[in-house]
Amino acid sequence: MADKLRKMIALRLSCVKEIQVIHNLALSAKGDAGFRIKFKVRYTSLKDLSDEFNRSHSSVLSLLAADKEADLNAEDSVKSDFLEMFYDIKSIYAELFDVASHLSYAGSSGDQTNVDIPHVKLPQIDLQRFSGDIRDFPGFKDMFDALVHTNSALKPVEKFNYLISSLTGTPLELIKHLKATTENYKTAYETLVTRYTNPRAQARSYWLPIENFAPLKSEDPHSLRKLLDTFSINLQSLKNMNVDIECDFVLTHMLLSRLDTETARAFEREYGSTSIPEYKTLFTFLEKHCNGLLNISGSNPMPKSISKASKSFPSKPTHNFLTRKEVKTPQCVLCSGGHNLYTCSEYLNKTQKERYAFCKSRTLCFSCLSCLHTLNRCKSKSACRKCGSKKHHTTLHWDTEKFGNHVTDSSGVNSDQNREGASAPSPSTSVEHSFTARTPPRSRSRCVILGTAMVEVQTYDGTQKKFRALLDSGSEISIISRGCYNALNIPRLVSSVVINGVGNTRVVNKGIAQIKLRPIGNSDLVLAIDAVILPKICDKMPTYRLDNTSWGYLKDLPLADPQYYVPGEVDILLGCDVFANLLLNETISGINGGPNALRTIFGYVLLGRIEHEPIALQVNSFLNTISEDFLDNLMKQFFEIETVPDSVTSPPEGECEDIFKNNVCRTTSGRYVVPLPFKVTDPIFPQCRELALQRFYALERRLLRHPAFHEQYCAVIREYLELSQMEIVDPPRDGLKFFYLPHYAVIKPDH
Q1: 66 shares a domain with 40
Q2: What is the pTM of this model?
Q3: The last residue of a domain, from among 97, 116, 144
Q4: What is the DSSP string of 623-663?
Q5: pLDDT tens sequence across 167-184
Q6: Distance, CA of 445 to CA of 368 (rounded, Å)
Q7: Residue 604 per-residue DSSP state
Q8: C-alpha of 636 from chain center
Q9: How many domains is the chain partitioned into structurally?
């Protein structure tokens, strides 16, 4: 600390000596015109010198404040001397080089001294008008003082008229009752200055725009720029008033709390620490992030040889080999028809019990019957038309008496149908769904490889990162994996695209990312693509390491993916929307069982059938069959579980019931207490403390790898302590029975 204090004092002393030199030069220039050019040149460094002095002086005060015996009065005198020389220099400069006052002085006197009069005609400077906004008064006063108040060529009565003409509203009402005389000018000027020189109100006027700035709702570069400008301008104004605002926690918290979710998440990924970030670090990141968003949203013309991928997604369904895209339409989860579930005739023909069981088996929301969320996350404002409850849909309203009858008679209304189905099964009694993986036969010696290429993709800050792309002419859209999208840290557009694959399998997309990719090292050829974000595109390709020793014809070719024979992740899929723009007119046929080489803008892409030694590959096949008999048994088991039994069915259950009846009690706080039903009277738990500690250490190691989850977990534990739901206990005494229960952290990132 002492070394830093000496350093700051030395830096401040250097600033004081420098301004003394400029001050002496100003006094010399005032009496001798020969020094004016040199003074004018040295004057340009005055502002930087003042800023450096203020920074070093503030640091000295901060370090001395920690010492209770330090004399701060002496430090105040240092700043007073500096400011006196500073404003004296500015006054002399205004007197010597101010254009308006100098021309007036030269015209009214016979002084023939050579002066620096511009050889161009400057535009006329109009007086700023002041309407009473305290934020505008410092600028108004400085301008009025420079042009009128300190102008010795003007008489006081003329200055009064200039003052009256530059005021409107409340300030004008304040002094307009004074007559325009020489004596009243000073009174009017001082009244105005006294009224609107209010540092406290002025500082508050700079702070309120920051405090009242509404949080951003989306990742919009223009809104983000407005937020940054508001913070920057008002904080700088407060600094100019010498208001101490150097508190990183307050400023960082206020700025972070006004960011949208995507931008805040991008900063957390970049920062990756639990320590309090500096405000300057956050502001610099947001500046770069905003510039990146502006660059991405800007319209950059595509090279003539490449046509930009269309951003519009057709409303009609379109088909492809791997994927299919279409605009979402209501689809019944029961019959797959183009209508909502609550209008489905098949659904309405079911009983309340059957509807409830169906919704529960499909994990539907009981309030709006949606398959996208559960009841606790439903935002629907609709209520049951029969009882007014928002906990269930009208079609799921239960009649208590009928419900009891259904529980008693497990066969219900479908008993006749079941008997008929048993004697004469219909073709629709079973539904089968089959999904089969790639199945290259073990005995064959041929397989097919798909074309891959290494590409460079532009990130949010304009840098380039390398990723592996798959060229697929059978896909109508391009796709980017979620891992690749997170690495780029670019904005995401909301998408209503539904992706269907082989066998009409559906994949939920995470939005659309607008990416710019190019061949490695070639900045003249850029592709702008709208890629759908998916959790994962496919498994590693190829599925095993290829033996390319006999493919000598590929040795001298510039390959798009030099590591094509090594299994690797696929980050981007380039579909038919850009596939034609990638091709160049040249193809080399495979030799010695090797692949074909297709020339593209990325280099030669290898694809086609190849020959290899027989290799044992794992083949996975999945087949699920669901029949009506199975559903009947499942429903029967469900209602048996949901129904409270009339009597105890086993001796252990009877013992548990006796323990409950004989020991249950209620505390004064309203909580029920019941002992655990152990099988033995005095249970023993050997080494339970060691096991619990092992689980705790494992949990701690896992959380430390994810700082955000670790902070959330600690917050929950602190809340338990504050609410007295958990307390610290002393080590167990000898002879006391105890058990250590491991605690688990259940984390659901999607919620």
Answers
A1: yes
A2: 0.31
A3: 97
A4: EEEEEHHHHHHHHHHHHHHHSPPSS--SHHHHHHHHHHHHH
A5: 888 888 888 788 888 888
A6: 54
A7: E
A8: 48
A9: 7
